[in-house]
Design a protein that fits this description.
The protein is mainly alpha-helical. It folds into two domains: about 70 residues, no CATH class; about 40 residues. Helix content is about 80%, strand content about 0%. The protein starts with 8 loop residues before the first helix and ends with a helix. The mean pLDDT is about 90.
């Protein structure tokens, strides 16, 4: 039972990528806000700010039981997912590319017909 609640790699990866995402968003936001009020934002201070805030937020959420339990449940549900094989992904990609070209051809044909029709109607 203790092993069931033990930290595992997916949980740690979720927190790691969440922290990295928070860092990038904080850095962009702070850079934008700072740059709005001054001409040259201090990149070092922005990076330190984003690092401290995202690290503190990640540690806070990691230690908060509700957040940790939610991430643990998400990781356990992701283990149950049946992921497609490489062959299925390739075939799906081919179908999407083919349908994209087919739709583009049909829309291009309708656009050509519509433009010719409007030229006839309006005498262009």
């Amino acid at each position: 039972m203790a092993q069931e609640n033990a930290p595992n790699k997916p949980v740690h990866l979720i927190y790691l990528f969440g922290g990295l995402l928070a860092f990038v968003l904080l850095k962009w936001t702070a850079d934008w806000i700072w740059g709005y009020f001054t001409r040259t934002p201090d990149e070092f201070l922005i990076i330190v700010f984003a690092t401290v805030v995202s690290t503190a937020g990640g540690i806070y959420l990691y230690r908060k039981e509700e957040s940790y339990n939610l991430v643990n449940e998400v990781a356990s549900e992701l283990k149950k997912v049946t992921w497609p094989t490489a062959q299925e992904v390739k075939m799906g990609t081919i179908v999407v590319i083919f349908m994209t070209f087919l739709a583009a051809f049909i829309l291009g044909f309708f656009d050509l017909v519509w433009s010719k029709l409007t030229q006839v109607i309006y005498g262009g």
